Amino acid sequence: MAFCPEDILSCYSASYAEARRTFLRAAEAQDAAVTSHLNPCGQGVSGEDLCMDIATVGSADADSALIVSSATHGIEGYAGSALQTGLLRDDIAKSLPDNSACHLVHAVNPFGFSHCRRVNEDNVDVNRNFVGFSHPLADSDDFLRFCAFAARERKEGRAADDTEVTARYLAAEGEQRYQRALTLGQYSNPTAIHFGGREPTWSNRIWRGFLDHALPGRALTIHMDIHTGLGRFGQETLIYTRDPGARGYELACQCYGGDELLIPGGALTPDVSGPIPSSFARFEDDTVVIGVAPEFGTVPLNQMLTTLVEENTLWHSECRGESERKASVERMMHCFCPDDAGWRIGVWRRFRRRIDQTIKLLNNL
Ligand SMILES: [Zn+2]
Questions:
Q1: Residues 103 and 159 reside in one and the same domain
Q2: Helix (H) or strand (E) holding 224
Q3: Ligand 1 mean position, distance from CA 321 (Å)
Q4: Residue (of 48, 54, 36, 47) closest to 214 by Cα position
Q5: Centroid of ligand 1 to alpha carbon of 76 (angstroms)
Q6: Which is nearest to 175 in space by CA: 363, 305, 19, 53?
Q7: Does 204 share its domain with 179?
Q8: How far is the CA of 158 from the centre of ligand 1 (A)?
Q9: How close is the Cα of 294 to the center of ligand 1, in Å?
Q10: Do 231 and 349 fall into the same domain?
Q11: What is residue 130's predicted lDDT score, i.e. its pLDDT?
Q12: What is d(CA 307, CA 314) in angstroms, rounded to the nearest whole number?
């Protein structure tokens, strides 16, 4: 039976464990080759294994490949996983041209997915972790300015915790400074948000191992990293995640429309430190890479960032109760995967359109 947009609703799951089962069943039904990588950090929230699963359809030694990844920001995997399962149920294998392959990388950060956190088992934002760790990493001026503000507010008794500090910073400095301070990535405070880590995370190492295996020999690789939480409710922002000066950009413009691609550095998407697509750089002498991040909007930016700060404060608090934890998870889910059929169907339509455009490009090579 043909896959209708409404069918995407049955691809959504209430937990990481259920999402993984649903994805693996859909992969099996499509005869996809699956490789599973177990995260040794421990079990998930219901005692389940935490894995990055990679399902591949099409020919393994194809000239071109589409890589679709989910849950780089754990909790965003609720939507990302559904979209990947939707692609399998919608029979993407049949629409791929010969001599191409599609790799669906399910749950880059399974710990965050399971615990409904954006970060991983070490409180690291995996999308700030792809940096060189051989020398000390300096924090941005925006973050240092925020830290000085926070220290002053605490010393003078105006704010007791991060939640209060950030609310005061937002009021004092405005949304754009607030966003830059909190989201560019920082490498000095392991218990604050957008911490990029002190070494490559498990997700980073497994991902790079996958690229080492998947990229050599390809003429063209297209990477789509699915995100949620930024932008207007249900709307898509297509962020271009590779160097616009490199060879892939022109092809990306042809494929998706140049005026639909957002280059990071502006107000909506700061040019963050150490994002996962930077892992493609070392292959770009030998293969053309197109990198995009479809970002699906949910709640206003202030609400999303405030929720993240509150969740992080609660996570690190020694006296968090079960009811507080549940309420925090609900707020997080609202910010990253709204329980709204219209949002979910609309996101599928927009995402499927990008996949259609990508397949058209692959067909025209
Ligand atoms: Zn994200």
A1: no
A2: strand 220-225
A3: 27
A4: 54
A5: 6
A6: 305
A7: no
A8: 32
A9: 10
A10: yes
A11: 96
A12: 10
Ligand 1 mean position to 225 CA, how many Å?
Answer: 9
Q: Where are the beta strands (DSSP E) in 247-326?
A: 261-262, 288-296
Predicted local distance difference test score (pLDDT) of residue 123: 97
CA of 98 to the centre of ligand 1 (A): 32
Listed as ranges, residues in the chain with pLDDT below 50 are: none
- The alpha carbon of 155 and the centre of ligand 1 are apart by a number of angstroms equal to 33
Q: How far does residue 216's CA lie from ligand 1's centre (Å)? A: 27
The verdict on 36 and 169 lying in the same domain is: no
Q: What is the DSSP letter of 186?
A: B
Distance (Å) from CA 333 to ligand 1 centroid: 13
Q: How far is the CA of 227 from the centre of ligand 1 (A)?
A: 4
- Domain shared by 272 and 127, yes or no: yes
Q: Please give the distance, rounded to the nearest whole angstrom, from the Cα atom of residue 208 to the centre of ligand 1.
A: 19
76 and 38, same structural domain? Answer: yes
Q: Which two tokens stand for residue 189?
A: 């405070």
Owner of token pair 């599973």: 36
72 CA from centroid of ligand 1 (Å) = 7
Tokens standing for residue 351: 């995402």
Return the closest-CA partner of residue 359 out of 244, 222, 225, 241: 222
Residue 229's CATH number: 3.40.630.10
Query: Is 193 contained in some domain?
Result: no
**pLDDT score at 337:** 98
233 & 157 share domain? no
Cα separation, 6 vs 128, in Å, equals 34
How many angstroms separate the alpha carbon of residue 84 from the centre of ligand 1? 16
**Structural domain boundaries, residue 52:** 5-131+198-296+337-364
Q: What spacing in Å lies between the alpha carbon of 144 and ligand 1's midpoint?
A: 23
- Considering its fold, how many domains does the chain have in total? 2
What distance in angstroms lies between residue 362's CA and the mean position of ligand 1's atoms? 26
Instruction: State if pTM tops 0.90.
Output: yes
- For residue 192, being part of any structural domain is answered with no
| pLDDT attached to residue 282 | 94
Residue 136 covered by a domain: no
345 in the same domain as 258 = yes
Confidence (pLDDT) at 302 = 86
Question: What pLDDT, in 10s, does the model give residues 35-68?
Answer: 999 999 999 999 999 999 999 999 878 999 999 9
